[in-house]
Amino acid sequence: MEFRILGTVEVATSSGVTIRIGGPKVRTLLAVLLLRANTSIRTDRLVDVIWDGHPPRSAMSTVHAYVSRLRSRLAAAGADGADRIVTDAQGYRIRVAPHELDAESFRQHVDRARAVRDEGAAAAAGEEFDAALRLWRGPALADISAGFVHPHAASLNEKRAEVMEERLAIALDTGQPELVAELRKMVLVYPTRERLTGLLMLALYRAGRPAEALRAFQAICRRFREELGMTPGRELQTLHQQILTDTVAPPKPAGVPLAADRNLPPDLVDFTGRTEQVHRLTKRLTDTGTATAVYSITGMAGVGKTALAIHVAHLVADRYPDGQLFLDLRAHRTDSGAIRPDAALETLLLMIGVPRQAVPDTLELRAALWRTQMAHRRAMVVLDDAASLAQIESLLPGNKDCVVLVTSRHQLSGLATTDTVPVEPLSLDGATHLFTTIVGRNREIPAEDEIRDTASLCSCVPLAVRAAADRFVSRPAWSVGDLNRWLADTWVVRSETVSRDVRTGSALAGSFHLLDEALRDLLVSLVAYPDSTFDVDSAAAWVGMPTEKTSRRLEALVDRSMLESPHYGTYRFNALVWAYAYGQAVAVRRTA
């Protein structure tokens, strides 16, 4: 069954036949349920939305009648249609699989397009953007007038416009055929979108029409001045200046295939410590066996798992001449979320040269093609920031001559690893050396005692040490004592500092916000415990929870690298995790 809101609201059978839904109120009911797909909506809320806050006295019974009518229409669309709308204690909800709702399919195509574009596959990204835009049949929710729907429709229409811009930018940047006419039409529809005007200017310039490009700039300047009382942004003004001075960059060569089977990120020039882990991994990577070797590298956010994996991969790259592939699985990216296995497989297949049109549609077929393509290769695959076994299981090649390095903040239960290498914070000497190395490239190296204090305040976590060193370098008037006072002013300031720092804060935020609610609550509750170390009984008593349940949750937090367990049954915070959790506790109290 297909549910469509990218245009008028429609339902179609699996064979593509559109079914009649009913009058405006029934279509509004369906639209509201689809906007909150798989989530219950109270009946009184439906009444308020359908009648825009002015319901008749019979509204409650009328809603029930509308639901019954909608169920009967859906029953005509498929065998389970009558069961799609579920009644529960909270109200009504509609059951919809992600691939059945056009808005969700649109999002998935866009996510895939942006992922492969970021990997350098412009042609594949263009195809995904085209597939996303083909789902649109007009303005979103075009036949629904209810006020509740307006902001949702506006948001969807805005996303469509953004994707149109991104698709046209790819077409223009790769030197695809004449785009001026299409861009002129788009600028008429969206006269204040600066990026569209910039693309039109670029297309005109590259078509040998610089005077028209300059007139397009003058037109938007005039429009902004008369309608908004402002001038266009810096990016558009820079392009205008480049056209005036004939310094616009040429387009990228069209049709350049993605060649990413050697796409390891560069090794860190200041990689520090990890001697034991590096020796352990490089030695094991020389061994041969009867199955694909899988090595799991685990640890908390910012501890250096990715740096270790990349460092080792470079050291042994010559042993894997048929490819060294790197893929960020984005388990803890709060902006886009983890890459799904099917999208990850598509990216890997494109990396090794499989044409986009030859990539199968289903996860199973993509996994089979991936294993077939890797069957005769001696290659290394680095899967960074994995969320779970389910995310990576289908990404493992079946060839014993291949090796896989997986980094994760979780213990990947069920993964048959050749070896699991835990990564902990650096030693005090290692963290001090890292700080000295970074600072020494830019300014005089301070006294070692002060640097050791800095390393301790950063809990010897490499990401935090790097952030502190970068801040010190960017503050030439500061002494290390100033930096240390800034780091250790108070726990409250420190927790906010962790949250503000782009690298450390976002890394910890990703780990924290992917915990389920019960684990987050336990972590936040434990920050107020009066001792730095606690056992299960003490923690259970502190939070008022049964010992067995507390034990399970403490172990789950250890598995996710949010707590440390120095001895059996004993737990403690890493200081940076404590500081971040403390900040969350403060935020909760402020909003309570």
TrEMBL record:
InterPro entries: AfsR-DnrI-RedD_regulator, BTAD, NB-ARC, OmpR/PhoB-type_DNA-bd, P-loop_NTPase, Sig_transdc_resp-reg_C-effctor, TPR-like_helical_dom_sf, WH-like_DNA-bd_sf. The keyword Transcription applies. SMART domains: BTAD, Trans_reg_C. It comes from the Bacteria. Residues 1-96 form the OmpR/PhoB-type domain. This is BTAD domain-containing putative transcriptional regulator. The keyword Metal-binding does not apply. Residues 1-96 bind DNA. Keywords: DNA-binding, Transcription, Transcription regulation. It comes from Sphaerisporangium dianthi. Belongs to the AfsR/DnrI/RedD regulatory family.
